[in-house]
Amino acid sequence: MTSSQRTTHWTARDIPDQNGRRAVVTGANSGIGYVTARELARQGAKVVLACRNEDRGREALERIGSEVPGADVEFRRLDLGDLASVREFAEGEGGGTLDLLINNAGVMALPYRRTADGFETQFGVNHLGHFALTGLLLPQLLATPGARVVTVSSMLHLAANIDITDLNSERRYRRWTAYARSKSANLLFVHELARRLAAGESDVVAASAHPGYASTNLQSTGPRMAGRRATAALMAVGNGIVGQSADAGALPTLYAATAPGVRPDSFTGPRFLAWRGAPAPSPRAGWTRNDVAGERLWAASQALTGVTYAALKG
Description:
Helix content: 40-55%
Order of helices and strands: EHEHEHEHEHEHHHHEEH
Oligomer: single chain
Structural class: alpha/beta
CATH class: Alpha Beta
CATH superfamily: NAD(P)-binding Rossmann-like Domain
């Protein structure tokens, strides 16, 4: 590990100057997405809060303004569960420069639902929505020297590989398995994107990160939607006992987005047991580095979303 990768004491104070850089952060209204957006803005970046819920997005905008006076932030609506919304968001970007795309938004262990386009919600939001968004914003990223794409996965990806023959969990739906598969899809997407960027001799870095166990509202949303109040309460207690703060959970994402020397297809998480602590290289399942699986998921994702990554060779 080089000196630039010694992360034992890396904190948000170590984020390099971001003045003149522009970032899009999905799911920036709460949790690690909010912290990521706030800390990038604190270091001078112009940050777009890309959120589904307009009220919560605008509340986040006001909070960042109060915590970081003078922050250059704006809210733009983005629903990753609706490809029309993804396209509208990308068209609204206007083709300018884009230094950072943080694919952070996600849903966890929901009851079976479908997106506006008919995809199983966890696969549709966590993977396909971000696949489409990245592809539509790729021309801006390619045109910006030193741009990065950071996709937030989870150590729970270790629980299940994708099933390329049943991406929408139509044969059998198990909420935690579907979540794990969507997080494996995130890592496999980053692997294939990094390979294609290298083939096109692009300096855009595609990397991934995970927060360990961070105390956010992600864990309790699924149980609440299913009417499982006891489980939601148990999740809240667990967050308080073993979860680290959202501020700490955002550090791997911030490191992957800003630290010098971050490698393509790297996976950054908390140092201590991939659970908590300063950012460090994180273990990952071998299936998330499988070239053949990456190509198959890529082809399926293009077919399902209609986003073809025409600007990228490979």
